[in-house]
Amino acid sequence: MGIIILVVLFAIIAIVWGLPSISQFYAAAKHAQATIDVAHAPQIFATSYLIAILIIVLLILAGLVTVIGTLWLLYRLVSSPPSSVLEPCGADPPDSGSSTISKLLRLFPNKTRSIS
User: Fold this and answer.
1) What band does 24 get if pLDDT is binned at 50, 70 and 90?
2) Contact present, 105 and 86 (Cβ < 8 Å)
3) How many Cβ atoms from other residues are within 10 Å of residue 103's Cβ?
């Protein structure tokens, strides 16, 4: 009976001495995990900054493409307007020296002449 009490007493002493050691190992593991998490934060921030920069660049490129495309379409319209839009049916073909403005003015007859 005395041996059993002695074994139980040694087991209690081992547990009492082991608890601080176990809690110290647990605290060290948590500290290491926190250090790893803090080390990953700059990587996450760098990735989010990269994504934000890429989105801004894509928006700028889309705006440039839109502006350049619009200017190109306007240039094509001004440089060579379709003849069917500017000439009414049965109109005399314009001479080669006429300008775009004179072609447009022919579409709208002078109203002061039609009154008399």
Assistant:
1) confident
2) no
3) 16
